Amino acid sequence: MGDEEGHWLTRSSILKSDNLLDWEYVADTTPLDINDRDNILFPEKIGGKFVLLRRPEEYVGEAYGTDKAAMWITYSEDLVNWEEPKLLATAQNLSWESRKIGGSTPPVRTDKGWLVLYHGVDEDIVYRVGAMLLDLEQPEKIIARTHHFIMEPETYYEKFGFQIPNVIFPTGNVVKDGLLYIYYGVTDTAIALATVPLDELVEHILQEGQQQNKP
């Protein structure tokens, strides 16, 4: 493998801690010879299994069912041995996610489904944010998905930064008093915070999903 190829390989692993100071290695979640990013663990077991989102960039082509890097889902009984991943969501050839998509924040349980924020990248390498709802018991089933992005680079610090311009990339979220706090990286330079009423966002996803499915 050439140095240029090796430079882009990423390793995703799970560590555990009882005190958030001392950490113990559990396992790698993806093969070490491919570029598999955006590994996101669901906050609880589903059907007795752990659930993980992945984005293997090499899983592209007719054999994989997608021509762009996409979101995959996999299951494990012990966090160490993971089942073969299943294709979950692909880029829908929309202008804002035409290049690739990938997971962003840990899924949030709602009474309408698992809320998943994801990022979409266009041909100009602009990162925007979409959202989808997954079935609570069968998370490989998409209930609804936004047709349009819900966030895009707007402010100066979201458009200009240290390394890559025009990037917003959610990585963490917290629900408190019905409000979803979305912590997101901006241009590989800083961390920002956006908030939205959780119920309003869920309803928005459902409405966009219904409109998209109309004949």
What do these coordinates show?
With about 220 residues, the chain is mainly β. About 10% of the residues lie in helices and about 40% in strands. It has 3 helices and 14 strands. The protein has helices at about 5, 155-160, 200-215, and strands spanning about 15, 25-30, 35-40, 50-55, 70-75, 85-90, 100-105, 110, 115-120, 125-135, 140-145, 170-175, 180-185, 190-195. Strands 7, 8, 9, 10 and 11 form a 5-stranded antiparallel beta sheet that branches. Strands 3-4-5-6 form a 4-stranded antiparallel beta sheet, with no helix packed on it. Strand 13 and strand 14 form a beta hairpin. The relative contact order is 0.11. The mean pLDDT is about 90.
Write out key terms for the chains shown.
single chain; 215 residues; mainly beta; five-stranded antiparallel beta sheet; four-stranded antiparallel beta sheet; 3 helices
